[in-house]
Amino acid sequence: MGKILFHIVWTTRGEFPIWDSRGDWTELADIYNTYTKSGITYSLSEPFEKSYKNIPPNPPGIPLTEKAQMHLRESIIELTGVNGDRVAGNLDVQFLHISETTVQLLVLADPLSLPQKIARLKSRTATLLSFKDSSLYPGKGVWGKGYWIATILNKEQLAISIIKNRIQNSGKSNQ
């Protein structure tokens, strides 16, 4: 089977995932509305909510400091590289965005190996963060449960450019 484009999102522990209406994933839902208008077809592991309540989590989620975000970015690039991790390696990352509470990846991957690669990536990055100074880097238990995934079924390059442009123009890019 050939490689397919996937959009993967996971959050830090305590943050509301995409399928929870208490959070706020309106910007991401807007990107997928743009996809629909652009003729990009996709399937979602969990649908977006009709409206989000934007309730702050209580207790608040684990924020990733700027140093932790940079370390995480370097770790993900290294782990997914050709000579990267034995499980998560050879993951063709097309786009990576890390914020205080989320990781977003656009990857070209074999759909059969993707779940194992993402699970390993979450596990290894949490471990690598735990080796750092705990006052600056959250570690074990940093990630919330599971992840959200969208399978992009056509117009992959257009889908990639739409996400890149929207995230970079929102001023929230740590690319």
CATH superfamily: Transposase IS200-like
Helix-residue proportion = 25-40%
Average the pLDDT over all residues and give the rounded result: 88
Order of helices and strands: EHEHEEHEH
Q: Distance between termini? A: 30 Å
User: Based on the structure, what is the oligomeric state of the protein chains?
Assistant: single chain
CATH architecture: 2-Layer Sandwich
Radius of gyration: 16 Å
Q: Compute the number of helices.
A: 4
Structural class: alpha+beta
Number of domains: 1
Q: Sheet bearing the most strands, described?
A: 5 strands, antiparallel
- Spatial shape: globular
Could you characterize what this model shows?
The chain has 175 residues and is of the alpha+beta class. The chain has a single domain (4-169), classed as Alpha-Beta Plaits (2-Layer Sandwich), CATH 3.30.70. The chain has four helices and five strands. It has helices at 26-37, 66-80, 114-130, 156-169; strands at 4-11, 42-44, 92-98, 102-109, 148-152. The protein has a five-stranded antiparallel sheet, with helices on both faces. Strand 3 and strand 4 (102-109) form a beta hairpin. Helix 2 (66-80) crosses helix 3 (114-130). The protein starts with a strand and ends in a 6-residue tail after the last helix.
Question: What are the main properties of this structure?
Answer:
globular; 175 residues; Alpha-Beta Plaits; 5 strands
Question: Would you spell out the secondary-structure blueprint of this structure?
Answer:
Elements: E1 4-11, H1 26-37, E2 42-44, H2 66-80, E3 92-98, E4 102-109, H3 114-130, E5 148-152, H4 156-169
Antiparallel strand pairs: 1-4, 1-5, 2-5, 3-4
